[in-house]
Amino acid sequence: MAEHYVVTGGAGFIGSAIVRSLLREGARRIVVIDNLLTGRESNLDQVRTSIDFQRADICNYQEIAPLIRGASVVFHEAALASVPRSIHDPIPSHDININGTFNVLRAAREGQAGRVVYAASSSAYGDTEVLPKVESMTPRPRSPYALQKLVGEYYCGIWSGVYGVETVSLRYFNVYGPRQDPTSPYSGVLSVFMKSVLERRAPTIFGDGEQSRDFTYVEDVAALNLKAARAPNVSGRFYNGGNGGRITLNQAWALLQELEGVEIAPNYGPPRAGDVRDSQADTTAAARDLQHSPQYSFEEGMRRTLEWYRADLQGGS
Ligand code: UD2
User: Fold this and answer.
1) What superfamily would CATH give domain 4-175+218-243+279-296?
2) pTM metric for this prediction
3) Which pick of 21, 143, 151, 316 has the fewest CB atoms within 10 Å?
4) Residue-wise pLDDT tens digits, 60-69
């Protein structure tokens, strides 16, 4: 593999998984850019001495440009996630997700980086009549967050077409796994479910719980990123990063109760604004062009994740 990697948002849940995967593959020079707004240095505890951690903000071009210059691959994971956060407070998510992404792309072009692999989102599809969702569908973003992530993807396409900067966008489908922060009101639903079941508390499900997601284990997403970094003839393209399955929230909570051997009825609240009803990835293009095949079934991913949260809650990890 090429030698100099940059991971923006590398102290975050997904970014730190990419960092660990790169190290496992023998990468020697990894620069992590993170302002620790939602990332945590503890996510990098085990690898801290093997990487170059730079506390820097993608919204500050002068700060990040020298760090990106000459990179072989930039994995751009830094973002302000969450559909509801972008609805309640659209300004910071606009600044980070659109202007920050612009800065990363500008720095990649001016610094002659080899390739940018961009963390796009399945939210770009919105509610489609047909499942699974395939890349040829017209995007229908339903929230500021979905639109912002889509703009980043379009920018990647333009950077490739106009400036010849290699870019690949990966539309992540509801990533879950160890290190996802369960403590924010904007946390991913499975991290909240994990904490609830381990603390023997009822979670709140927004809506009837029959909405479905193609929950994707973080190690599969990290593996997909490494493949996207290397694949030939994919510049300017975007690919689904999902499993191809579809699990309802009621099913996910039922599985967690079963794994823990408890019975806790969830609370049901009103549906959330901006929510997509169903989400499921067509994985054909990623398999064909990136040779990607997810390795973790939902149950296996959930078991591993639950064990990680158990250890973490007990202060053992
Ligand atoms: C969207 C994207 C996902 C990723 C993510 C980043 C879709 C389909 N997915 O995830 O790919 O970009 O944004 O933030 O657009 N919920 C509850 N109780 C809770 C928390 C959530 O019922 O305590 C529900 C929520 O209303 C939704 C589902 O769980 O129906 C998933 O919510 P989420 O915030 O985990 O992720 P989502 O689908 O907005």
Assistant:
1) NAD(P)-binding Rossmann-like Domain (3.40.50.720)
2) 0.98
3) 316
4) 999 999 999 9
